[in-house]
């Protein structure tokens, strides 16, 4: 299968139906031991120091790894993607764009997905067949999520990892499905983790993956990963077709729509506090003002940049926040 890069979650059902292997460029960037090199490539080619590390990392991956075709989401994701695509086109990379319309009307979402199908010359019937197949895998990831927040047998990091991987199914839906079977079987045989503080992680997936182990060392446990869970389309059963599935997806749309699901998960998972992660130089950092005004729960906002490990200052802030939350927990009052 021919590989095609994606800058975030798109209707992968269309790409797989067209015979492509979607590759989430973010996942290559953040998991690579050479991640700093990808950023250096972008900065040598003129990307400013003050631009987002994710955008520079995606650019570096495309150049270094020989990605020759890419889909960028130009509405409903990063505000810099349009400029990124223009620069990548200078390197003879074939560019496609996709939009999650700001209107968030079902008819507009349908038009965008139909345009996407036309670009790749696939029918709705074939796309629906692929969607049904992929949703059997989404069900397994939903079970992993339940093993996290109900049974306490899957770690917050594992929960993050397997949900975020549904953006591209790790390049092979069949192999990924088998991997999930092993994770579920192993998880069921573990002892439950009982931490004092139940945390929710909101915002974009982190560059600083060590945040999960760090909070667990301080008697806390992430039992909710907001955006990663949205990448997994947990409410897929409510969707009659691919249009409804991508309409019922909180990440690319307005915060008012996002809040409904956040509030539901805070209650369902009995969360004590939230950690809101944003990336330096990203417009999404401003959303923290809105979220704190609308959610009645302690929220710590932390910001990542180019380093893929928590720095000392952020660790200190997390530790102080968790101490405060612990003192507020009903069992400790």
From TrEMBL:
Pfam families: HGD-D. The keyword Repeat does not apply. It comes from the Bacteria. GO terms for molecular function: hydro-lyase activity; iron-sulfur cluster binding. The keyword Manganese does not apply. Belongs to the FldB/FldC dehydratase alpha/beta subunit family. This is Benzoyl-CoA reductase/2-hydroxyglutaryl-CoA dehydratase subunit BcrC/BadD/HgdB. It comes from Natranaerovirga pectinivora.
């Amino acid at each position: 299968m021919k590989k095609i890069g994606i800058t975030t979650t798109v209707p992968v059902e269309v790409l797989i139906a067209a015979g492509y292997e979607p590759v989430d460029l973010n996942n290559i960037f953040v998991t690579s031991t050479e991640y700093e090199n990808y950023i250096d490539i972008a900065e040598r080619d003129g990307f400013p120091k003050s631009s987002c590390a994710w955008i520079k990392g995606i650019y570096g991956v495309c150049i270094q790894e020989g990605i020759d075709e890419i889909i960028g989401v130009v509405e409903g994701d990063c505000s810099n993607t349009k400029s990124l695509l223009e620069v990548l086109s200078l390197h003879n990379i074939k560019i496609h764009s996709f939009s999650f319309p700001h209107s968030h009307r079902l008819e507009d979402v349908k038009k965008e997905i139909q345009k996407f199908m036309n670009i790749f010359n696939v029918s709705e019937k074939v796309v629906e067949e692929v969607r049904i197949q992929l949703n059997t895998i989404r069900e397994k990831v939903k079970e992993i999520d339940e093993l996290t927040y109900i049974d306490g047998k899957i770690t917050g990091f594992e929960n993050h990892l397997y949900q975020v991987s549904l953006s591209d199914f790790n390049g092979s839906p069949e192999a990924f499905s088998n991997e999930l079977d092993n994770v579920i079987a192993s998880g069921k045989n573990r002892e439950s983790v009982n931490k004092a503080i139940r945390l929710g992680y909101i915002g974009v997936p982190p560059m600083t993956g060590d945040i999960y182990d760090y909070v667990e060392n301080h008697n806390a446990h992430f039992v909710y990963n907001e955006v990663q869970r949205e990448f997994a389309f947990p409410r897929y059963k409510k969707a009659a077709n691919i249009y409804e599935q991508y309409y019922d997806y909180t990440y690319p749309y307005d915060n008012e729509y996002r809040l409904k699901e956040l509030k539901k998960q805070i209650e369902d998972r009995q969360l004590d506090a939230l950690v809101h992660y944003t990336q330096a130089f990203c417009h999404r950092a401003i959303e923290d003002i809105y979220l704190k005004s609308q959610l009645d729960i302690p929220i710590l906002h932390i910001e990542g940049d180019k380093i893929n490990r928590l720095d000392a200052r952020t660790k200190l802030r997390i530790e102080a926040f968790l101490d405060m939350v612990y003192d507020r927990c009903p069992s400790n009052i």
